[in-house]
Request: fold
Amino acid sequence: MDHDGILEKVILLTSEELEVDAAGLGEDTAFKDLGADSFDLLELVTSFEDEFAATLEDEELNSIATIGDAVRAIECCRG
Reply:
């Protein structure tokens, strides 16, 4: 799956998990601006890992603040 495909899936998962409109989401969208707390982020990361068969390392988790950050972390984990 290419960058755009991963981005599309991350946006869809974020929209579903946080119950926000996917149309307004993009790479620069910060999870905190969507009202996500640390528990929400943990749930999102778990969804991302399940969807993409990836395991995100702790240092990557701490650097995920935006949808774009999540996409890049997934790309790194998938090789």
About this structure: The two ends are 11 Å apart (CA to CA). The chain is about 60% helix and 0% strand.
